[in-house]
Amino acid sequence: MPWLILATGPILAFLLAPxxxALVMSxxxxxxxxxxxxxxxxxxxxxxxxxxRWIQATINSLIVGxxxxxxxxxxxxxxAIGLHFGxxxxxxxxxxxxxxxxxxxxxxxGAALFFAFSAVGLSGSLVGLVLGHxxxxxxxxxxxxxxxxQGQDANLLRAAASLGASPLLALRRxxxxxxxxxxxxxxxxxxxxxxxxxxISLFLAGPGQFTLPRQMYATVREYTxxxxxxxxxxxxALSILFVLATEALRRRAA
Amino acid sequence: xxRGLAAALLAPxxxLLGLGFLAPxxxLLATAxRDPExxxxxxxxxxxxxxxxxQGLPGEGAFAALARESTAALADxxxxxxxxxxxxxxxxxxAALLRVARAGGRxxxxxxxxxxxxxxxxxxxxxxxxxxxxxxxxxxxxxxRALDLTPGAAGIEAVPADLALFRELxxxxxxxxxxxxxxxxxxxxxxxxLIAGLRPPWSGIVTAMVLVPFWSSxxxxxxxxxxxxxxxxxxxxxxxxxxxIAEPLQMLGTRAAVLVATIHVxxxxxxxxxxxxxxxLDPRLPRAAASLGAGPWLRFWRIxxxxxxxxxxxxxxxxxxLAIxxxxxPALLGGERDQLIAWFIAQFLNRDxxxxxxxxxxxxxxxxxxxxxxxxxxxxxxxxxxRR
Lengths: 254, 388
Known about the structure:
A: mainly alpha, MetI-like fold, 11 helices, B: 2 domains, two-stranded antiparallel ribbon, 72% helix
């Protein structure tokens, strides 16, 4: 084991160093990108929270992420339950179709949505973005909820039925409470996917509809200020929250 | 549960994916082979060319229709898509067509004389053949051009060397993806083995160190690299301070920057499937091998590696699949010569407004992704069978 720790130390450092470097650089008092700032300041965080462009991008990301999470979680959970209990002969095929957006390169999905949404007037609208993000986020919900369903006792539904519960009542009172942690984990996954998504936003977002990744991309190429790194650090902090949340949900489910 | 209820639960997502994903995808595939511009803009000319036998010059009817319809289309500002389409397959055809369209009503019959008098190219059967080649409704032009081929008079030909671009692009995309995949597997394997061997709470802590980058946005991590490698950035600063270099290195816009950052972005993706397989590995097997006298290398070679091969296949396939479609990291950190297929798709879509080419590149990229998936399925399947 000691040699394995020695070998993996540099790999872990490689994984984490850029994130830590972004944190340090975001705390610099001046515009210089440096790992040894003379003093620490929250100036760039203040800039992030007061600059209208960043505020708008944050709001857009929250709207799109929230909308996509809602759609993907509702539809994905329902589909996973249907797929699990339906005993369809083409179950494997159905699951492949439901998870197709994950294995399709995002650039291809983005191009396809750009064509289609331009034709029906959905490009340059937040509705189009929400739909696009729902499509790529829903497979994560389906897979997570399916895993949660497979961990449950198959007899529970039958027991509920024998006590006179209709299938819908049994779903609401027996199945849903049991798989709630899985559904929540799927929702976190969906939100993180939407927050990370860039290419669909690149094609579909009109002016004033930039999401956070889109705004970062636009700014980093013009002029790299530590504000971008402040934004990056805030997003990393958010992903630490995601990790903690999914871990807590996993424990509750176990 | 009644199957009707199950189907009703399944239906909304299938509807969303059908309308919001599958239908757009099929439309994209159709765009790669459709050739609608000539029929939409010069329908009468097209009809004449469909009737034409392709030998010599077409008859007076084709010349007359060309003069009449191109003039009308220009006046209504409908000529743009067609000239773009024609100039793509036959450079110079735009200018020849615009000359006729701009002459307006000044041309007089017989048009078979007045049109060539305006522009000599219309006396060349090759010009008419190029126009007739755009008659549609289907074309192989875009799919072939995406492979540096072109439908010529004598079958499929290679495009002139100065237009050739895409085979090198595909080779570059595959090569970069392959390097990234190999590096990710080589780095992820020991990392996953470490986590699998650690006890709580250490296993959880190291897992979190992998998961936090995994959950962080691709753009966040690419941006961090962008700042690190900038000309006035900390890496240059440190190297200058250490006296290792005399002046700042140009690291942005290089292939190395793209590779390092892409490996960094995709490394966690490789760790997770490997970890899943390693956690399922029965720890008694290596111990049994050790008790029978197998050394560490033999244990690794004969036990660990074969049993973890499905994880290698799954992790490798995932990384490769993501790498061949990568956009942000090369766009941010690479130069013109480091861009992959995705960048060209975006360019054709946004800058050149050549939807046929964007669609054709998407088709080939999709085919590539399908091939990778099939190969990974075979490899993983073999590995599973070997295990039994």
